[in-house]
Structures are given as C-alpha cells and as structure tokens.
Amino acid sequence: MKTILILGANGGTAQILIQRLLNETDDELILFLRHASRLAQYQDNGRVTVIDGDVLDQDRLRQAMQKADIVYSNVGGADLAAQTQSILKAMAAENKQRLIFISALGANYEVKGNFGSWNEQAIAAYLPGFRESDKLIQDSGVNYTEIRPAWLTDEDEIDYETTQRGENFKGTEVSRKSVADLAFKLINNPDMDQRASVGVNKPSTDGDKPRWIE
C-alpha cells in the first residue's frame, strides 16, 4: 500500500486516476485542490483525505505532503512555473523523491512541422510555463516522470503510444483515460520511466491540427 498525493485533484485526468486507484488498488489518497468542496463525495471515504489548499502555500503543501510516497501533479495555468517551483521546494523540505508531473506537448520543443507551428500559437500563453517547469524539474534532482500529452479528448478509450525526450512528438490528440492509464502504471511501477519525459498520443492521429479544430 502506498500513499499518493494528488495535486490539482479536481482536473479531468486526475479524477479518472482517482477512481482507478480507489477501484483497483489499496492505496491511500491525499487530494489537494482549491475549493475542496468540489470533491465532497470523497469526504467519507476512509482511504481519502481531501485538503483545501493552494500549491503556492508552502506550509499547507508541506503538511499535505508529509505522508506521501508519490507526488502526482495535475496543476496548470499561466503561473505553472511558480507552482512547480513551490512543489519542488516542498518535496526537498519533506525529503520526497518520486514525482509524476503532467505537462503538455511542446514542453521539449519536440512538436515539428505544421502542427508544431499551430501548437506554438494555440498555447502560446502557457508554453513558457511548461518549458520552465521542465527545466526546473530536470535540475531539481527528484526522481521524476514528466508526461506530455497531446490535445486531450474525453473519448471513452485507452489507446496510446509514447515517445521519449529527444524524439519528435507523434499525433495530435489523446484521451484523458489514456493519460490516466499511463499515470496509473507509473504509480504501480515506480521504477518505470525514471527521470524521463514521456510524450503520449493516440496512434494514427497525425495532422496539421486536432481533428475538431476548423
């Protein structure tokens, strides 16, 4: 049995992961999010602790992290680098090593061609945060796995392939269920993809942009 701290626990991928961990493991979960009332359905679950907090609040974050064996981050936003720095600072202070970090395609400058050019413009406000976070994590010394998903869908499927740092990104889309499946495997096999940055996409979805974009 492990204890998993899930940061940004109200995110769509995080919620899929939470359900799989509760249904398929005996792990205990610490769910950390702003406005904890959004996950009130877990308040009476004996394996779950729900904490209302902001990852920029070091005292609150360190307290939440004390019992964690693995830290899973699903946080995001234009201030992602500041949040990442706070997470890494708390991990150092609490002597935590294993981090699974949800990033995005483009964090490694790995998306090429017309899709890469389109993606640079589409998420221009967020890419600097993803890229700075990538560097912070690499330089931190923690045992990390960074996950770089393609554009996310809510398709009811687990269908994906992966690429590693230094390889060109493949595809344009991937389901949240697929990303949660990869995170689930990492939690259950902590030796998998150590100090790695993993791109994840649905096979055969290459194109100049995601299929639903006009």
UniProtKB/TrEMBL annotation:
| Gene3D superfamilies noted in UniProt | NAD(P)-binding Rossmann-like Domain (3.40.50.720)
List residues of the NAD(P)-binding domain. 8-190
Q: Where would one find the signal peptide in this protein?
A: none
- Give the start-end ranges of region Disordered: 194-214
List where Basic and acidic residues composition bias occurs. 205-214
On the tree of life, the source organism's domain of life is: Bacteria
| Pfam families the record matches | NAD_binding_10
Q: Which PANTHER family match?
A: FLAVIN REDUCTASE-RELATED, UPF0659 PROTEIN YMR090W
What is the name attached to this protein's record? Nad-dependent epimerase dehydratase
Question: Whose protein is this, by species?
Answer: Furfurilactobacillus rossiae DSM 15814
